[in-house]
Amino acid sequence: MTSSVDFESLRPSPADVRVVTSDGSTIAAHSSVLASASPVLEQMIEVSARIRILGASPDAVAAFLRFLYSPREATSGEWGEAAMAAHGAPLLALAHAHRVPWLKRRAEEDVAAPLTAERAVDALKLARLCDAPRLYLECVRLAGKDLAAVELSEGWRFAGRHDAALQVDLLRLLHDADQRKKRWERERASQDVYRQLSDAMASLDRAFTEASPCDDDSSGACTARQGIVQLVRHLAGCGNKGGGGGGCPHCKRIFQLLRLHSSVCDRAEPCRVPLCSNLKTKMQAEKVDKTWRLLVKKVARAGVMATLDNRQVPEIVKRSWAKYSSGGSRSRAARFR
User: What's the confidence (pLDDT) of residue 223?
Assistant: First the structure.
């Protein structure tokens, strides 16, 4: 049986290849078009002028061949959109099997765009078979957002009966993603602590190195400076230090802050911050543990990053970045399409 699809009219030369579909129907095509579009079809044509494209419906095979004849229809045109909507998954499989990368990318995008929880497991299996990382990632993201709906789908129940490894892989990916999110949240919280310690050290340094008094009591910097000075005075007069700040919690905080300051202070002249010189001498004489050195390093790094975040960007740089973000990226994207 011969298919009603006519590709002979698309080329002046007569068709010299017959494509056999899964139901036994044949489609006349041109070997030059198929061989130039797909290296797999080229090897098949070298063996025989009658090639078989199985595993998909005749309509999907006909759409696949038409895309090979008219590549522009894959990116524009109503027919291309309709064909992708009707045969997206078979076109992805055919493009992967016959090594047509541009069609595979387009089909992968169209399959991933309308993805729902009901079809997530089926699309995930298709993505594994066709080596489609973008579709695979979209399926995992959808499962992470609504795992309960995915577990109610027919694809999930089918995978439980026939492909338990797929379920295990998906659950492991979701578990790893959840662990990464928790680890990122812990790191973010730690960075906030280091940033606060860096700000406290900066307030301590300003409180004792700036010669001018604070005249505006309503300012935040002035309030922080006065609080630091009061804590230092409390440390000097508190009778419950407990040997280096072990008793009074206020003494303990300010003592650790003074010690942290002395660890990063690199002034050549005598520092005006209380106990800075004494603590420096003590730490040089004693061996400082690795945990404290790591804390000092992270706090110093947080201070540097805070300085970079608060730096004043020149106006010419702002205008250049605005121009780059508005028009430059679009022009480059259009040039590479």
Answer: 66
pTM of the model: 0.60
Cα separation, 132 vs 90, in Å, equals 13
Least confident of 26-30, 149-153, 232-236: 232-236
Own/partner pairs, 99-108, CB within 8 angstroms, 24+ separation: 99/38, 99/39, 99/40, 100/37, 100/38, 100/67, 100/68, 102/71, 102/74, 103/64, 103/67, 103/68, 103/71, 103/74, 104/130, 104/132, 106/74, 106/75, 108/132, 108/134, 108/135
| Residue 198: φ, ψ to 5° | -65, -40
Q: Which residues, in sequence order, are bridge partners of residue 2?
A: 26
List the structure tokens of 289: 């543990």
- Residue in the structure block whose two tokens are 């730490």: 283
Q: Which of 32-36, 93-97, 219-223 has the lowest mean pLDDT?
A: 219-223
Q: For the CA atoms of the chain, what is the radius of gyration?
A: 34
| Burial zone of 286 (CB within 10 Å; 0-12 exposed, 13-18 middle, 19+ buried) | exposed
Q: How far apart are CA 216 and CA 301, in angstroms?
A: 31
Per-residue pLDDT at 313: 72
295 three-state secondary structure = helix
Structure tokens given for 99: 């090594």
Q: Residue range 180-202: average pLDDT?
A: 87
Q: Residues 299, 264: contact at Cβ < 8 Å? A: yes
What pLDDT score was predicted for residue 98?
95
How many CB atoms lie under 10 A from the CB of residue 119?
A: 19
Alpha helices in 117-163, H assignment, sequence order:
120-130, 133-145, 147-151, 154-162
User: What is the three-class DSSP state of 157?
Assistant: helix
Q: Which long-range contacts (CB under 8 A, 24 or more apart) does 171-178 make?
A: 173/140, 174/140, 174/143, 174/144, 174/147, 177/140, 177/144
According to the per-residue pLDDT averaged within each range, which of 10-19, 21-30, 303-312, 318-327 is highest?
21-30
